[in-house]
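Predicting holo structure, zinc ion bound.
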Amino acid sequence: MKALVYNGPRDVSVETVPDPTIERPTDVLVRITDTNICGSDLHMYEGRTDMEPGRILGHENQGVVIEIGDGVDRIKVGDHVCVPFNVACGFCRNCDSGLPNACLTVAPGRAGGGYGYADMGPFSGGQAELLRVPYGDYNCLRLPADDAEEKANDYVMLADIWPTGYHAVELSKFMPGESIVIFGAGPVGLLSAYTAVLRGATQVMVVDRHPDRLRLAESIGAIPIDDSKGPPVEQVMEITKGRQADRGVDAVGYQAHEPDGHEQPEMVMNNLVQSVRATGGLGIIGVYVPRDPKAATEDAKHGAIDFDFGMAWSKAQTIGTGQTPVKRYNRHLRDLIHVGRAHPSFIVSHELPLTEAPNAYEHFDRRDDGWTKVVLKPAA
Ligand SMILES: [Zn+2]
Ligand SMILES: [Zn+2]
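Done. Tokens:
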């Protein structure tokens, strides 16, 4: 089959590789119809992880089941399925508690597995024609046959970024009638904003510096804040008339940088502490890593950042962190799409064949204007 292979920093190519096969009776084989390029793929693309050359990228995957193992009961050949980026067993202590993001059995030595991702187990990614899904009954979300194709670009957002955007809002302990400030208007930040709008926020403020992303934020009823035009904390103060936001989301992560490019991994966390009110909540969904060999400072190489914990503590803010348990949300969010109440595909800027993936990575990595979200279509 054809697949997008990671060769090294800013070097990916479409190669012919062996087809995946059913390796265990609980496996499902999916012919990929839709697979997104994610902002977190860029950490690997840029060489900011321990990703091994030769691996296939892609953790936001959707397609049609073409083969099932003998031990698969629920999923059938021909089903349209969206596959959560978490690879999880469904039977360990954490999966049992509704936290498949921290599955204890699939990736030896760590909590949580993922497709085509650094330090998340041996699983191949789905930016390819075929994908092997372990524990298929548990991991596949079935899509309604009557609109799976028509709404493919909406449903594929259930693999990661809409549940992730939703989880960020949950981590902040947001309640209807509150305000929220979201740092980062990439796909996750935009879908955090979309979630907050759907769930009845009074004010949704979105901080970014790219006009195309800020326009999308505005298009769903959020207030755009351009941090290249002035300190974002001051802008939040002005918009909230000095009250600060009730809740805040970090949808940027450890590669946070000033508008001039100067990297400062703690910048968004500290801006959140300042722009969220005392006893408010912070949802930290942007990726932070325990090892970052290319970091700007010695501390940051070991995941240590200069976080203003004193201010966060004295404001009695709550802080929620970590990857998303996609399965906690994807069924409900799928049904909102199915009945026409939600259209998360508003962020999609490009639908491209797999052969265009290397070029798409280049544009997305440069944050080129208009490249807000790429959906690859390997089966097209
Ligand atoms: Zn993703
Ligand atoms: Zn598990």
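The chain has twelve helices and 17 strands.
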